[in-house]
Amino acid sequence: MQSNNKLFPVLIGTLTMCVIALFPILNLLNVFCCAGIMIGGFAGVTAYNKQLIKTGLLLNARDGGMIGILSGILSAVIVTGFGLLLSLFSTQNPMTDVMNSFDQLGFNIPEQARVYLERFSNEINEHGFSPTLTIFSFIINLIIYPLFGAAGALIAVSIFKKKSTV
Known about the structure:
It is a single chain. The chain is mainly α. The chain has 6 helices and no strands. It has helices at residues 7-22, 35-55, 61-89, 94-105, 111-127, 131-165. The radius of gyration is 20 Å and the shape is elongated.
């Protein structure tokens, strides 16, 4: 039995997720139920299905889901790392900007929220980034990216299975 390489499809899925997440206009796709992440999982399974067609093997949900999950994990690491690098090389403190914007718009920030914003702002002033926000972002990304990557991959599997049975 011939084994197909899943590395290339995982890299395709990862590249798609990262491009959508990191480019300013494209990242608006993720506002719609993380559609950009799901597109990445879909793209990875599409690449894998093209490999399988050449060998005559059938696509299964386990392989598709694994491609989506692995693409999501790798994308979570890259997107979080890129955000960290961006904050390290930035001269602005986004927490100060957020608090100033809320004040200018007349929104009252609850006192507990203001305490946390000031704490994050102090971390950024001290370290050049907020370790707390970076860790929190990484954990959230490690949950969301594989979850929605797998969802997009499983959607692709169901579509390609229907096409192969027709």
